[in-house]
Design goal:
heterodimer; A: 346 residues; mainly alpha; 14 helices; 76% helix; 0% strand; B: 502 residues; alpha+beta; 11-stranded mixed sheet; 5-stranded antiparallel sheet; 12 helices; 20 strands
Chain lengths: 346, 502
């Protein structure tokens, strides 16, 4: 299993603090705010470090963008002219600061190859990648929640074994293979869907969603399998807690205890996984985007790396890092919302 | 006396098939024969400006569809008049007076005249030009507007390739009014107008009804970019695309051939695929070692293994479909024993290691593995290094840090690279350099053919590089589509004479 409930010990610790602070009426909001501020500060520091690392790593990679664009017959003076045009003749440090400064002002620079503002290029791709990630995440959650609950409620019985077997398979099957099989069956044989490509939102919401359906399913299945397993074991863990025993002792049935008490408490590890999965789905759909030739962010980065469109690579990676950090920030806040004990752990 | 060169005299450069320029744009009737088509290709163009980047994908979209030059390539490789209706060449071969087609307008409605030609040529050869093939224009000393339909170009010496050079996509005519947005909004004179570029996905064009020549038959076209070979196969099979130009998975072609819904177009390209050899690096600075490598290679095994049988063996750096080609494959036949003997004679110790860089195309990656095995069989030990194009350009091409590498030289008529001693394979032969110099100044077709053949023999005798095969042009299309280029004399998907035969 991927994640071992990173907050558990802290949660136990926080529980003790809560006993200590209980009785105070109003500190919840203030504590929540302090907690959020502290998380926010670490977010800013992470972003600064990330920007420096991204810039250095991208610039160190061998390959000159101008030479790539002009090919093997380019003359030296032509290369120099293009480098000057792209601003590649300036010192690296200066380019770093103008890049960071530009981003702070909302200007990501101009793509070397496309010759359009990077912000526009990224915005275009997000129209595909963001809905695709959300679609896949929704599918994965919709599958995992009922499946996880079902398996936990029937622990050790046939239903549980069937779900666990299916998730084992879901984790093991590579999503690109599944995608290729889906194309073979649903696009080539049944003709229900196109083999790939994105219809565009201009063609209507339904057409857009239709072209994202096979990719979203291919992305969602392995994620759903992982999430189901996390959900199940988190539920089983909470079911063993004292408060569940107390609840059962008060007369709740096993199922009632599961729904009323265990589910909410099991959500923390599940939220962690969902946060990680969203970041992964946004950035990690490269292969699925290749299989379905979707103009998404992953494919953009892939193309930009081979074309040495450094500014695009740097900006997209920075944006993804930003997204991951922000998602984690939101997840941290969500913990606190789900589990009030965490607010006081400062 | 001045002589007027019509299209036929251009046969001095290329094969037959002239005067067909007027033949394009016919719509042979039939319901729906002009329906738009969806054409897929593997790589997306980085920009849509053919005059400031080397990527072939640009020409594959815009050449002859959106942009036109003074002369142009036809599908059979011949050069015919384009925006220049005719031309006169001075006796010493240095002054070209081009008479332009009248009544030509750019897609934005502005007139195409001699000023635009001057602007385009001057821009390409300017000091701050970013034209990837700036050398094409190197000999031009002056471009003068005589009247709105006459341009006079002066060269610093006779150049037998000049009209051929002007047919390249890098030499198309652009307008000063629309030059600033050309990368994303190309405005040309062609039979199709640019509509939209959904970056990462597709480029669409529509028929230009105000075209000066014969209008195209199809209403428009969408170019889709599908890089993954499996996805390419699925897109064609599912009928999502009507044509796949440059199909990336030759192993799937027999399946399309067997399917009545499709046609497979197998043609030739200008791509000499060679095992480039670092002529300055030991042990390859010894001609016996290069000869040994040549005899160690089994070309047919490479064509079969890497290209699934598609490709024509070559024995020198010249396209086999060119009338001036000399078949020299016998001179470097597969003979591993001879290779071993030559290596021993040259004193190369068995197990000698050197770097072999392989760029991404499958001819290089697949072919490289096969060649490495063949070289190991004669006692050499190539160390394979897979590189991206950007790395290849920096390390291998510019840095010259390689022993062997595999690359397809797709520029048409590029034997002249052997006269450049600083070129990456570093072949330095003054005799060949003098010959190429003479060739450039010669316009007599027979004399040129003879010189080209001598040049082919010289480089084959020196075993400059390992000559593997001429890259095939492989395309798949729906069976009803007519008028596609089978061969690829230049990177292009000329749609001006394409229609549906329903």
């Amino acid at each position: 299993m991927l994640v071992k409930y990173p907050r558990r010990r802290l949660a136990d610790f926080a529980c003790k603090i809560r006993i200590w602070t209980s009785g105070r009426a109003g500190p919840n909001l203030a504590l929540m705010l302090r907690y959020a501020l502290k998380r926010f500060a670490s977010l800013i520091v992470s972003l600064i470090i990330a920007s420096a690392v991204i810039f250095v790593v991208t610039e160190v990679a061998p390959g000159d963008p101008a030479a790539f664009m002009l090919g093997i017959n380019a003359q030296e003076d032509t290369l120099a002219a293009l480098r000057a045009e792209l601003g590649l003749d300036q010192p690296k440090l200066q380019r770093y600061f103008s890049w960071v400064g530009g981003m702070l002002a909302g200007d990501f620079g101009t793509s070397y190859t496309y010759r359009t503002p990077v912000a526009e290029v990224i915005a275009d791709r997000l129209q595909v990648s963001l809905p695709l990630a959300l679609y896949a995440l929704a599918l994965s959650t919709l599958i995992a929640f009922p499946a996880g609950l079902f398996a936990a409620a029937r622990r050790g019985r046939a239903g549980d074994l069937a779900v666990m077997g299916a998730t084992q398979l879901g984790v093991a099957v590579p999503n690109f293979w599944f995608a290729m099989m889906a194309v073979l069956v649903f696009a080539i044989n049944l003709r229900w869907f196109g083999a790939g490509g994105f219809a565009g939102w201009d063609a209507g919401f339904a057409a857009g969603m239709k072209s994202l359906t096979l990719p979203a399913i291919s992305l969602a299945l392995p994620q759903a399998a992982i999430l189901t397993r996390v959900m199940r074991s988190a539920l089983l863990d909470t079911l063993g807690e004292d408060y569940i025993r107390t609840a059962r002792a008060k007369g709740l049935s096993r199922r009632q205890a599961l729904w009323r008490h265990a589910l909410r408490n099991a959500l923390i590890p599940v939220l962690t996984i969902i946060g990680l999965q969203f970041s992964f789905l946004l950035a990690g759909a490269i292969i699925i985007e290749q299989v379905f030739f979707l103009p998404g962010l992953g494919r953009l980065v892939f193309q930009a790396i081979s074309a040495r469109d450094l500014i695009v690579v740097e900006s997209v990676v920075m944006l993804l890092v930003f997204a991951v950090i922000v998602v984690n920030f939101v997840v941290d806040l969500a913990y606190a919302a789900v589990d009030p004990r965490l607010r006081s752990r400062i | 006396m001045k002589h007027i060169l019509g299209p036929s005299a251009l046969a001095l450069m290329m094969t037959s098939g002239m005067a067909v320029a007027a033949g394009h744009g016919t719509c042979p009737g039939g319901e729906g024969s002009g329906a738009p088509i969806t054409l897929a290709m593997q790589l997306e163009p980085p920009t849509l400006d053919p005059t400031s980047a080397a990527a072939q994908a640009i020409d594959s979209v815009v050449y002859s569809n959106i942009f036109e030059g003074l002369t142009r390539f036809m599908g059979d490789g011949s050069i015919v008049p384009g925006l220049a209706e005719s031309w006169e060449i001075s006796d010493d071969g240095t002054v070209y007076a081009f008479k332009l087609q009248g009544g030509v307008t750019f897609h934005d409605g502005t007139t195409m005249d001699a000023e635009d030609v001057k602007f385009s040529l001057d821009r390409a050869r300017a000091e701050d030009s970013t034209n990837a093939q700036k050398a094409l224009f190197a000999g031009i000393t002056d471009v003068r507007v005589i009247d709105p339909v006459t341009v006079q170009v002066t060269l610093d010496g006779p150049n037998g390739n000049f009209l051929f050079n002007l047919a390249w996509g890098d030499a198309v005519i652009v307008a000063p009014e629309s030059i600033d947005g050309i990368a994303n909004n190309p405005v040309g004179t062609g039979a199709f107008k640019f509509v939209e570029w959904k970056q990462g996905d597709s480029v669409s064009i529509t028929r230009n009804d105000a075209y000066w020549g014969n209008a195209a038959c199809i209403e428009g076209a969408t170019f889709k970019f599908i890089s993954d070979p499996t996805a390419a196969f699925a897109a064609v099979m599912a009928g999502d695309v009507d044509v796949f130009s440059g199909f990336p998975a030759p192993e799937n072609l027999p399946q399309f051939e067997a399917d009545p819904r499709f046609q497979v177009l197998v043609g030739s390209t200008e791509g000499e695929t060679i095992l480039s050899t670092n002529n300055k690096m030991p042990p390859f600075d010894d001609v016996r070692v290069r000869q040994a490598v040549a005899h160690a290679i089994d070309r047919q095994a490479i064509i079969d293994g890497a290209m699934f049988g598609y490709g024509t063996p070559i024995g020198t750096h010249f396209a086999p479909h060119n009338p001036a080609y000399v078949d020299l494959t016998g001179q470097s036949n597969y003979d591993p024993d001879k290779a071993r003997a030559l290596l021993a004679e040259a004193g190369v110790a068995p197990g000698t290691q050197f770097k072999m860089t392989l760029p991404p195309p499958s001819y290089a990656r697949r072919g490289g593995e096969i060649i490495a095995a063949q070289l190991r069989a004669v006692g050499l030990d190539p160390q394979i290094e897979n590189v991206e194009w950007a790395q290849w350009l920096e390390g291998t091409f510019r840095g010259k840090d390689f022993g062997l590498t595999i690359v397809s030289h797709t520029e048409p008529m590029d034997i002249g690279i052997y006269a450049r001693p600083d070129y990456y394979f570093q072949y330095d032969n003054p005799d060949l350099q003098a010959l190429m110099d003479d060739l450039n100044k010669t316009t007599d077709p027979d004399a040129r053919t003879e010189m080209l053949q001598t040049a082919q023999k010289i480089i084959a005798d020196d075993y400059v590089n390992g000559y593997l095969f001429q890259l095939a042009a492989l395309s798949v299309a729906k069976a009803e589509i007519v008028g596609l280029w089978t061969n690829a004399p230049t990177a292009a998907n000329d749609l001006t004479s394409v229609y549906w035969n329903n």
